[in-house]
């Protein structure tokens, strides 16, 4: 079951999200366990248009009536790829903003195409080199 963060009376806690659906440009959410001592009690609230945009972006958004704020828990997708050491060095150069200094133009174009096809956003982790290969962990879109 998905969860969302609730900021209620200055306390932040995660509660189960029962349902979340759009009604026009507003969003209706149903959560469970907002109130202390009532873990099975369901609460239904509406997010106005501007607050729904905040919610969609993973920010805290105030529900109608203003009793509490909600925040979508955004999961981060990752992808591990084992590549030759020279290619890993090229990715490191590209993701650090060096622009592939010291690499051939066709190698850079091939790497950029690979990044776009695999929807890679950022390089987050690199393993120790083994047999002239390295495992890189990327955040993906």
Question: Any overview of this molecule?
Answer:
The protein has 141 residues and is α+β, with helices and mostly antiparallel strands. It is built from three helices and nine strands. The strands form two sheets. The chain has a six-stranded antiparallel sheet with strand order 4-3-2-1-6-5. Strands 7-9-8 form a three-stranded antiparallel sheet.
What portion of residues belong to β-strands? 35-45%
Beginning-to-end CA distance, first to last residue: 22 Å
Strand order of the largest sheet: 4-3-2-1-6-5
Shape: elongated
What count of helical segments does DSSP give?
Answer: 3
Pattern of helices and strands: EEEEHEEEHHEE
- Give the biggest beta sheet: 6 strands, antiparallel
Poorly predicted sequence stretches spanning 5 or more consecutive residues: none
């Amino acid at each position: 079951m998905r969860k969302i963060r609730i900021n209620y009376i200055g306390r932040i806690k995660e509660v189960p999200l029962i349902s979340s659906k759009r009604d026009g440009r507003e969003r209706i959410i149903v959560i469970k366990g907002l109130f202390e001592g009532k873990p099975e009690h369901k609460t239904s609230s509406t997010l106005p248009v501007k607050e729904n945009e905040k919610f969609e972006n993973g920010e805290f958004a105030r529900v109608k009536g203003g009793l509490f704020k909600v925040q979508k828990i955004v999961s981060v997708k990752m992808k591990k790829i084992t590549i030759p050491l020279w290619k890993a060095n090229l990715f490191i150069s590209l993701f650090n903003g060096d622009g592939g200094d010291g690499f051939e133009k066709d190698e850079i174009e091939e790497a950029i195409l690979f990044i776009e096809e695999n929807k890679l956003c950022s390089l987050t982790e690199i393993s120790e080199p083994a047999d002239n290969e390295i495992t890189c962990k990327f955040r993906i879109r």
